[in-house]
Amino acid sequence: MVEYILKNGIVFDPTNNIKGEKKDVAFSNGKIVEDVSSDAKVIDVTDKLVMAAGVDPHSHIAGPKLVVGRLYRPEDSRKGIVPAKGVTRSETGFSVPSCPATGYRYSRMGYGTVVEAAMPPLEAKHTHEEIMTIPNIDVPALPLFGNNWFVLEYARDGKVDELAAFVAKWLKLVKGYGIKIVNPCGGEAWGWGMNVHGVDDPAPYWDVTAREVVRTLAKVNEKLGLPHSIHLHPNDLGHPGNDLTTLESMKMVSDIKKSSGVRNQNLHMTHIQYHSYSGTNWRDFKSGAEGVAKYINSNDHVTCDVGQITLDETTTMTADGPMEFDLHQLNGLKWANKDIELETASGIVPFIYSGRNSVHSVQWAIGLELFLGIKNPWQVMLTTDSPNAGPFIRYPRVISWLMSNKRRMEMIENREVHKAVEKKSSLATLDREYGFDEIATISRAGPAKAYGFTDRGHLGVGANADIAVYDLEPNNIDPSVEHEQIEKAFGNALYTIKNGQTLVKDGEVVAIKQSQNIWTNVQGLEAEEAAVMKEVMPVFNKYYTIKFENYKVHDHFVSNPIEVKVQAGKASK
Amino acid sequence: MAYEEPITDYDYIVENCTCAFCGCNCDDLVYLVKGGNVKGELEDNVVVSGYVDGGHVVGVRHACRLGASKVMEDMDQRLLVPMIRDAEGNLVETDWDTALDKAAELIAGSVRPVFYGWSETSIETMKFGLELGELVGAVLDNQATICHGPSLQAVQNAGYPVMTLGECKNRADMIVYTGNNAMNSHPRHLARYSTFPRGFFRKRGRFDRTVVTMDPRYTDTAKMSDIWVGFEQNGDYEFYNAMRAVLRGKKLQKDVISGIPKEDIEELVESMKQAQFGALFFGLGLTHTLSKQRNIDIAINLIQDLNKFSKWNLIPMRGHFNVNGFNIFMAYEQGFPYGVDFARGYPRYMNGETNTIDLLTREEPDVFMVIAADPGAHFPSGANRHLANIPVIQIDIHWGPSTELADIVLPGSFIAVEAGGTSYRMDGVPIYMKKAISKPETCRDDEWIVNELLKRVQKIKGIAPREASK
């Protein structure tokens, strides 16, 4: 057993209330420990920035959507080519990188855990195959439930207990971590080329509304006591005036009591930037960030991640099928669609976000307004909804924007973004600048807490030795001025340590570690699950095109998983 | 088709097996197995886990003629032992070590190796193949290069509006087969996925659907369709273009387009607009006629246009059971679907440059490994001429024209019967194809063979195995 000690770093660990103390971090056997013997290997990081390894709460990195993106955009794959070197294989791709590239790039940014935010259950095996191919990061995956026919039916009939057993069973079948809901009822409507608008517009045939689906799934989530709350991509993504839908989506679950001891929220709103648009059309479109931020500031039952626009050419991909078709109608670029029987829709369209475009610039500003307007950093998280608003490799740039009002104003004044930003958003009036402590919160501690992880996202004794060290001296830098330095350092970790193993040194990947899938095993509902399966099986056999035996994710597809056991109905600690 | 007595002489039943023939990957097959011992659990005579050691599949339930005949394949043509071609040009039986060492030596010593095939083996096998390819700087390519390659090019031009087959089964009220004859090539496609099954919103099955075949030939599929549109050969592009024009409200200038009266086109477009959910299945008849990928471009554009009025999706009718799997696998591993060249230490994909046929006709490759494919039967003669001049390593289960070209023959095992493995259906649904019986004693699993080659090449090159690989 080798012991290590990271010496004299400036540590930011919001979970344990450590804000820039000069201290040592000791670890052995893959875990953080109180102290080590004098034989411990010393890694000298004097005055350098030390944080827990990053936790990304929402990213699209593995699965059928991604592969369609790679298949049909060789022009994107050609962009990020890096030849094989040392321990690493070749990398391809910019917005939709290949699996190895995804692992290396996250690792270089000091990340250790990334949540794959949308897994269609029918094709879960595919997602897990990709997770096995991505090195160096742990990947929980959230299965899509919001347009599943069984869910629609149970929600319509108000059968919370049955739905709870169904969800518990399905998480086991597909090795999923929590409940993802995308455009509830809208995905099903897309089966007929339609969409729903707002939370009270029923899905065709099923006669159930998004309000009922979301509320029922929220109740189910708390009844099961899942580590994460429901993860909601609400209705009307990207429509001017959707801020009202967003506010209603948050309000409608405010009375549901959370059952976890770790997280604070009963609802996680994802890529909320896309849902904070005010106005009635693209002409009078303006920021609705203020109202959304105001709700979040006065209600602690919600957390959100932003989905910050990075002004790049990217590939949008979401299970929100109708939205992607609208986008294709808007920009005319090649449209891919992928509807999954009984479960979900999805779509993919390349998109070029440009600072010269007024709408894109205002979208960019809205994201930043939300970051700056939401007061509690534990309620807002760093994402670009990768690759939708921009690829994840832009996180360091977003961090530099958050830490430097000077840089933001420079972008506005130098017209790096369209002048509409000043008219249609209040970004120019917000001079808040994030400190390292807040950055550590939005990129590791906050997401870990929201996901109910106690073994990562912090540097307390007993946590995994997932550590990032950046080549920055927090006491000798003014991020407001030296924003370029900030971007560079957060993109090229001095050290990334995962389970005690040094994977990155000086911004280079030096070791490869097999990734692990994290999934939730709900226990104590075995009888209920069996009863529900009796109802489900006749429908399954009749309407799926695959046999039940071949539907589940075999152990073969999840090498070395981390199983989170949850006792149904009991709050986890 | 003569009447055949049902098979009653069997000992065990293995259920939910997956058919390893076409891109339908029907996973409801029941194998009737005679003889052998069950390694696993048995309930009555149904094998609920594990496989039958030493058994033979004597009957297959639910499969079509194509699938059943492949599963119950006559052992006559089975490759059973490794062989090396001697100085006189005869294939001589040898032992595994000799054959593998010789093959590894060839691969390790080559400057422009091509690994072709993969569409009839498992993703797990491809994994080792790719690692080997990256190590020696090979070109990895699959049958898409000679079949749906232009479709993939079109997808890269125009988009990819697809669905899983169950969407079609549950919702579709209009089904179009174009440039393919599913009744012959994918016999259960209509029965299991598209036309006949009773779907959730199509409770009466066939009666709730309109089936259209657009094909110059009056095929078996056309015979059982409601509408047959027999446009002229090579008239695909013009015909689709006319449909798009009508859809966009344009008046057609000519009275007859590609042999179809304009009134018929207008009527057809109108009914496609009126459909609640339409599904278009296209095959090589569309992909490989005059305008190649441009035909598919315009078919995709037509589908995109139709979505302004109704709901339409399409699916390419992939041939081999895992041809889609290789494209998916390569895309998530290295970013490109097929024809991926690692010669420069990073992946390159350039149609017309890094595809097998182009390489062979330019006489570039110096070693060719073919796995689960039959270039001898399918490649143009110019390409095969070069194959005859260079060392060819074949990994396959049956004798074929490629065996005549091969210098080293490594007998594999039959995925989904004798070995388990992952495959991707034509619509991208992954299926773990389970093992039902044991393989012939002298054969090896594809996965094992390719891994062995990898290990031996690593040894020759003095390279340690990759950490994250199994």
UniProtKB/TrEMBL annotation, chain A:
Gene3D superfamilies for this protein: Urease, subunit C, domain 1 (2.30.40.10)
Keywords carried by this UniProt record: Hydrolase, Transferase
Listed InterPro entries: Amidohydro_3, Formylmethanofuran_DH_asu, Metal-dep_hydrolase_composite, Metal_Hydrolase, Metallo-dep_Hydrolases_sf
Occurrences of domain Amidohydrolase (ranges): 41-503
UniProt-listed Enzyme Commission number(s): 3.5.1.-
GO molecular function, one term: hydrolase activity, acting on carbon-nitrogen (but not peptide) bonds
Domain of life: Archaea
Pfam family, one: Amidohydro_3
Protein name: Formyltransferase/hydrolase complex Fhc subunit A
The gene coding this protein: fhcA
TrEMBL record, chain B:
InterPro entries per record: Formylmethanofuran_DH_bsu (IPR016457), Mopterin_OxRdtase (IPR006656), Prok_molybdopt-oxidoreductase (IPR050123)
Cellular component GO terms, alphabetical: membrane
Pfam family, one: Molybdopterin
Listed Gene3D superfamilies: 3.40.50.740, Dimethylsulfoxide Reductase, domain 2
Annotated EC: 1.1.5.6
Annotated keywords: Oxidoreductase
Domain Molybdopterin oxidoreductase: 78-456
Entry keyword Oxidoreductase: yes
Biological-process GO terms, alphabetical: methanogenesis; respiratory electron transport chain
Signal peptide segment: none
Enzyme class (EC, first level): oxidoreductase
One GO MF term attached to the UniProt entry: formylmethanofuran dehydrogenase activity
CDD domains (alphabetical): MopB_FmdB-FwdB
NCBIfam families: one_C_dehyd_B
Protein name, UniProt field: Formate dehydrogenase, nitrate-inducible, major subunit
Species of origin: Methanobrevibacter filiformis
